[in-house]
Write a structure and sequence with these properties.
alpha/beta; Rossmann fold; 6-stranded mixed β-sheet; 5-stranded parallel β-sheet; 19 helices; globular
Length: 478
């Protein structure tokens, strides 16, 4: 078993840290809170660690069983071992592939593709949210409480979160997406869910605007408490926790202490690759972590220069990465600032005020010791989709294509396994794939009528007051 007593782990805020010992929360408190009340993000006070026996067992263990083992130390006493195993098996029974997140060896350069898109909504967010939705329902049912989710999505989180809680009588969800800045499949996967507890809101703005509105709702403490707000974005630690599992699975299967596995992750909000960083901290045999970005390259620019500088968000063929303020990067910065939450709080306030944050030379050196980064624009994305199809026979969605290209740019030692994360099914982005290869990927049969389903959505400006009024006047389902 992962080494950590079930009641050991407590959670601290990136803006409070170990200096504020009163704010050491349990997993249940953190999952229901989402964002910390001081505006920071929760993360474990310390990392549990894998034993050699754990990693050996994970090579052949069924994914759902392994997930229950890996996350057990993080949930503490919130769930018994039996409950956790049941919830995990129920969550991953919804996936179309028996391996849940299969690994494919590609025909080039010792590269592997980890397919994370076999869940209900065809994107990697399902891996965490199918489990998180069940955990949330279980905890609320015990207490007789209700919760209201407020979330922002650049495309995939929204549909995965909605699918995880649709029809619930204890949870209703308000999901914000940037109007006209998702693919049609992504939008329809959200807006065609007509369950009474589901409320889709199209915001006239960017994903960053949506994310800022959601955070503003949390930071309005009276509003937050009145609505019992929680989050399903990767600002919620439970999301990141569940994603640690698939990195551990791949590293255990392909790597060893003598041969660590590297990963290339297409990412905009840094949550997915932060889960890889967490798995590495826990002792999984993980080497380099490669950040792959599109034209919205604030993360790549940080690794290159040590500076985070906000820029205008550009619409691209990989819209889930069209982000210029990467929320989860604050979790890494917390470590780079030696877990000094007060110092980081000042830096983050200045960043939001000035649009720029600069790391010290020592902090940048530490970040570069683990991470590398690269970028790919839209023309390159179309070229790489075509090249990958020609060379490997795999149809890649635009986000995965960015990861595939950057993995090859930053390859390093070809004897080291490199895993590229396949974050979405190509059918979620059919126009881009068809433009690249002349072949339109088809949706699974269970989604074949998606374009014919009726839609329901509210359109709002980038206006916090209007959003809060909508939520205040929308009754909870009974």
């Amino acid at each position: 078993m992962v080494r950590a007593l079930m009641s050991d782990i407590r959670y601290i805020s990136t803006r409070g840290g170990s200096q504020n010992m009163a704010e050491r929360l349990t997993f249940e408190e953190v999952m229901l809170s989402g964002l910390a009340r001081d505006g920071g993000l929760y993360l474990p006070e310390s990392w549990p660690t894998f034993s050699a026996e754990d990693l050996a067992a994970y090579r052949t263990m069924p994914y759902a069983d392994m997930a229950a083992r890996v996350i057990a130390p993080f949930v503490g006493n919130a769930f018994s071992a039996e409950e956790l195993l049941r919830l995990s098996r129920e969550a991953y029974a919804t996936f179309d592939h028996p391996e849940v997140v299969p690994l494919k060896k590609l025909a080039v350069d010792n590269l592997y593709l980890m397919e994370l898109f076999h869940g209900p909504t065809l994107a990697f967010k399902d891996v965490a949210l199918q489990l998180l939705g069940r955990m949330l329902e279980e905890i609320l049912s015990r207490s007789g409480k209700r919760a209201r989710i407020i979330g922002a999505t650049s495309g995939d989180t929204g549909s995965a979160a909605i699918e995880a809680v649709r029809g619930s009588r204890r949870v209703d969800i308000f999901m914000l997406h940037p109007r006209g800045r998702t693919s049609e499949v992504q939008r329809r996967q959200m807006t065609t869910v007509l369950a009474p507890n589901v409320h889709n809101v199209a915001i006239d703005g960017t994903f960053d605007d949506c994310q800022d509105l959601a955070k503003a709702c949390f930071n309005d403490l009276a509003f937050r408490d009145h609505h019992h707000l929680t989050a399903v974005n990767s600002i919620n630690w439970a999301r990141v926790m569940a994603q640690i599992v698939y990195y551990t699975a791949a590293a255990a299967r392909l790597g060893s202490a003598e041969r660590p596995v590297s990963f290339c992750v297409p990412t905009g909000n840094f949550g997915n690759i932060y889960a890889a960083y967490a798995a590495k901290q826990m002792g999984a045999p993980i080497g380099r972590l490669i950040i792959a970005t599109n034209t919205n390259d604030i993360l790549a620019r940080f690794i290159e220069s040590g500076a985070q500088t906000m820029a205008a968000v550009e619409a691209t063929l990989s819209p889930s990465m069209d982000i210029q303020v990467s929320s989860n990067f604050e979790r890494l910065l917390f470590d780079l600032f030696d877990r000094d939450g007060r110092a980081l709080a000042k830096v983050m306030a200045a960043f939001r005020s000035t649009g720029t944050m600069r790391a010290s030379a020592a902090q940048l050196l530490r970040a570069r010791g683990i991470f590398d980064a690269g970028r790919l624009d839209d023309s390159g994305t179309l070229r790489v989709i075509a090249e990958a199809y020609r060379d490997t026979g795999e149809l890649l969605d635009p986000h995965t294509a960015v990861g595939y290209a950057v993995a090859r740019q930053k390859r390093g030692d070809p004897s080291t396994p490199m895993v590229v994360l396949g974050t979405a099914h190509p059918a979620k982005f059919p126009d881009a794939v068809e433009k690249a290869v002349g072949k339109r990927p088809e949706l699974p049969e269970r989604m074949a009528d998606l374009y014919k389903r009726p839609e329901r959505c509210t359109v709002l400006g980038n206006d916090l007051r209007a959003l809060q009024q909508l939520m205040d006047t929308t009754p909870a389902p009974r």
